[in-house]
Amino acid sequence: MPFSRLPGGNFAVQELDYVGSGQEDDYARFRKGAAAVFRYTTNAGDALRGVLDRIQVAAKHGAKAVFIIADGELKVGNYEHPLRNQVLDIPAVYITPEVAAQLGVDPSSFTPSRLPSKKIEMKFEIERGNAVGYNLVGKLRGTKGTRSILIVSNLDGFGKLPDGRIYETAKGSAVAIGLMTDLMDYYQTHRPEYNIIFAMVGSKWTSHEGIRDLIRKINWGTIAYTFDLYALGGKGEFFVTYTDDRQKELALRLSKQAFLNPGDFGNAFSAELSRETARLFLVRDDDTWIDDSLTDRFANVDANNYRKNLEKLKSMIDETIRYDIARTPDYNSVGTAYLDVIRKSVNRMETEYFEIYFENEYSGKLTPDFLRSMDEIYERLLKANYYPSVKQKIKVYYLKDEYDRGRVIDHPGPIRHGGAANGKLLAFSAEGPALGNVAHELNHILIDAKGIGTLENNPLNAFLQEAHG
Question: In the prediction, which pLDDT does 1 show?
Fold first, then answer.
């Protein structure tokens, strides 16, 4: 039986259809409600190789059960490499070529055909339990600021057989974990400008609980870039997949083999990470596919190639930090912007955490020192509010007209004294630049972003936020 996600209960089938290797095109004449019989071996040019993928295609076309002809080496990489731990909708059972011949299958052909009717009854009693998974996360502090590089990889192997044989999955996970520990040692004595967060993530082979838990706890407002180390330990010839076209320039700096992939990540953590960040690179080495997973051992990884992997990762991390620092906002740079809601053109500046829109009267106060202090306040308040996830820069408006101040943040009336914030818009408006006001209004926004005690329709929460500010 494939893996451990078979549904329990009683099942009976009578009609059987042979569907070759179980590709989409093989179901053109499939009878809904029949059992699908397909070969484990795939044909040249077939799009689907994974058994789970082909079982799901059978279920989509109305198959009542699946029989998989074990006519080749059952490679772990082609099935026992689960994407999710949901129970299958239909039973899927391996059968020998001899049993397939008894069902009427021509073993020399991939051509779909209708098989003779044969009553088959099956009963499955399945016991499932829960197990505790772990994430190991460490942070190495950089020499300045709160910006961080996040490096993640899979902590889990494929487990072991009852006879004690272990699937180490070296190139699938263990090499990446080893490289992360060597990177920790290196950066302890070669301290980078940015923090580096190393996340060894468990529970990959179930429902991705580990990476989802990490995503919930990471403060994404401080993550400059994320690296998902997917399969390493090959020749050290990395290729990089980026998920957003805006990251193309850096991706090409990191690897000559850089590819845009906005969504199809297979079983990589990037499937979850890409929902949270666009600054994401999936890193994979060449020559990492292993057909016999029992041979995929750390001891079999070439030591020279391992060192090449390590040096390549160092250069990628260092280049990423240099690239990001070079694009740090210039506190002296001023542009213009048109604000539709008030039908005015105003000045515009950016800091690391803010977009500031202001009229000429306020230019004298928005000095580089003031702007740097705004960013320092932001970093302190992130910690004070337990690191809420803020996915964009905070918009700040300094406008002369009190009604304009209100309109730009969708405030119900004019803003005459001090300022006001709108947590939903991640914006605040004020009568003029003042660091105390920045801290107060920003605090409202970050509390709302954390989801604790929002202002909306709750006088008590409004009072508590004012007191906290």
Answer: 39
